[in-house]
Design brief:
Layout lengths: L1 H19 L5 E7 L6 E10 L2 E9 L6 E8 L9 E9 L2 E6 L3 H4 L4 E6 L7 E6 L25 H25 L1
Antiparallel strand pairs: 1-2, 1-8, 2-3, 3-6, 4-5, 4-7, 7-8
Helix pairs in contact: 1-3
């Protein structure tokens, strides 16, 4: 009975860790636009309280440049729409901002992250579509391809490790109690 309780407890712990990691960060490739030479990556993370943390890291940004970055409606290219939220200026190749929207509300296939040339030149230098969560694509926007999950440990591997640790603990406990 005790072994069954330990197994069920371990299984539930692993299941809860897997569920908690399901809302992991979303990584978006920001592709060069119009041969600008500028590209980068955006990482969206649930910041709690219906907010999303957005971190940008750019490559080949012109020296001394400060490029405005935004969350735009639509998708990169001709369907890129109005600015829905500012991410501030990319300076020294990075910026971090918090958007007052839950991460799930941005994952509809109807939003993109756009980096502009400057405050006076709104032309895009880099852009990346925020991927849709399965089943949330909007009719107005083409379906975005979700990026593969990165990091973490598969649940089966987690169960095997948990089982091995429980087994090792049981053997050590038995060995320790038989030594006295």
């Amino acid at each position: 009975m005790r072994r069954l309780a330990m197994f069920v407890g371990s299984f539930l712990a692993v299941a809860m860790v897997s569920a908690a990691s399901a809302q992991g960060p979303v990584t978006i490739q920001l592709n060069e636009v119009a041969k600008s030479g500028v590209s980068g990556v955006a990482i969206l993370t649930d910041a709690g309280n219906n907010q999303t943390k957005v971190e940008l890291a750019m490559l080949s940004e012109p020296v001394g440049a400060t490029e405005p970055a935004n969350v735009n409606a639509g998708q990169c290219g001709s369907s890129l729409g109005a600015v829905k939220g500012s991410l501030g200026n990319v300076a020294f190749d990075t910026t971090t901002a918090t958007v007052n929207a839950p991460i799930g509300s941005l994952q509809t296939g109807g939003f993109a992250i756009n980096v502009q040339a400057s405050a006076t030149d709104a032309s895009s230098v880099a852009c990346g579509n925020i991927p849709a969560i399965a089943g949330t694509n909007t009719a107005a926007a083409p379906a975005a391809t979700a990026l593969p999950a990165t990091g973490g440990m598969p649940p089966v591997a987690m169960l095997l490790v948990a089982g091995a640790l429980l087994g090792a603990g049981y053997v050590i406990r038995r060995h320790a109690s038989s030594s006295f």
